[in-house]
Design brief:
Number of strands: 9
Strand content: 15-25%
Strand order of the largest sheet: 3-2-1-4-5
CATH class of the largest domain: Alpha Beta
Distance between the termini: 42 Å
Order of helices and strands: HEHEHEHHEHHEHHHEEEHE
Bound molecules: xanthosine-5'-monophosphate
Mean pLDDT: 94
Shape: globular
Length: about 325
């Protein structure tokens, strides 16, 4: 029968055999799949695995620096590339959800291609593709690898896409990937992370994106997610996040009338993201979270909770 330990032994041996002493490039996203793929490859080929972790400026608060540090602590040969300005610049003024996704996909490919050219003589591109990605190629979903797939016909093939592809998790389901990760000694918190979309906060800021809006949403999201952890609710939820709505509403603060932003919180239960139910979070938790957000995040005066299931409502609002 299948065991994570046996999978690790067999796969590491196969990777050594297949790759030899050639160099491999891998895009880390901070998510479970790319992280497990990286540790597995690192175990097989060590420093010949060159990981690239791109900050698109649309990650959660402090995520880039914290996750980068964590990767370094795991001994990975990783380069963090802060391309925030480039992404936000190209997104400026754009409100259409699909166009935002396309811009992010394109800039990611440009940045990744530039970075991969710096790894001289690389022969392989590793991806954290898992079995459900293979069978469904879930249209818009998935991490960097999916982003790459849906954009590879734009303006000719970038050089890194001409590399040989290695996908060590290709035959695994998500729960098996987590078990492999645990067997490799990867931090439980990393393995238990909620899914996070490749375009990040861009599709949770309804309408156009500005650095100010990103900063507001990062604060709101951090209060919500930290709260879920503190209240021991994080692991009971499949995915959670906050949406910044493109409306202002009236409020009062002391004697003053305010006219500020509204955020929506969303937490869902799901097994694969294809269907989802909203989570019945405790009222006390929602009350505390709402107060914290309104008191601590300037520019937000109203919090609502999304009680829509998928279908018909999608998990993301864009
Ligand atoms: P929806 O909103 O379609 O989301 O119900 C289902 C799952 O997919 C994620 N998602 C994306 N992931 N790129 C991604 O990498 C995307 O463009 C994208 N859109 C949605 C979403 O976070 C949820 O887990």
């Amino acid at each position: 029968s299948w065991t994570p330990d046996a999978f690790v032994d067999k796969t590491v041996a196969e990777l050594k055999e297949k790759i030899g002493d050639e160099k491999v490039i891998l895009g880390l996203s901070g998510g479970v799949d790319s992280s497990v793929a990286a540790v597995l490859l690192h175990k097989a080929i060590g420093k010949n695995l060159h990981c690239i972790f791109v900050n698109n400026g649309l990650l959660r608060k402090n995520e880039f620096t914290e996750v980068l540090k964590q990767y370094e602590g795991m001994g990975l040969n990783v380069k963090g590339v802060d391309a925030s300005a480039r992404f936000l610049n190209d997104l400026a003024g754009e409100s259409d959800p699909e166009t935002k996704r396309k811009i992010i996909g394109r800039v990611f490919i440009e940045v990744f291609d530039d970075e991969s050219h710096l790894v001289e003589g690389a022969k392989w591109l590793a991806q954290g593709t898992i079995y459900p990605d293979v069978i469904e190629s879930v249209s818009a979903t998935g991490g960097p690898s999916q982003t790459i797939k849906s954009h590879h016909n734009v303006g000719g093939l970038p050089d890194f896409m001409k590399l040989k592809v290695v996908e060590p998790l290709k035959m695994l389901f998500k729960d098996e990937v987590r078990r492999v990760g645990a067997s490799l000694g990867i931090d439980k918190a990393l393995l238990g992370r909620h899914p996070f979309p490749g375009p990040g906060l861009a599709i949770r800021i309804l309408g156009d994106i500005t650095p100010e809006k990103v900063a507001i949403l990062q604060e709101v999201d951090a209060i919500f997610i930290d709260g879920l952890k503190k209240w021991d609710l994080y692991d009971k939820v499949w995915q959670a996040g906050a949406m910044l709505l493109p409306v202002n509403s009236v409020g009062v603060m002391g004697d003053e009338r305010t006219y500020e932003k509204c955020v929506a919180l969303r937490a869902v239960e799901s097994t694969d993201g294809m269907t989802a139910d909203w989570v019945n979070l405790p009222y006390e938790f929602l009350q505390k979270t709402s107060n914290d957000i309104i008191n601590k995040v300037p520019g937000v005066n109203r919090v609502v909770y999304d009680i829509s299931s998928k279908p018909p409502a999608t998990i993301e609002w864009e």
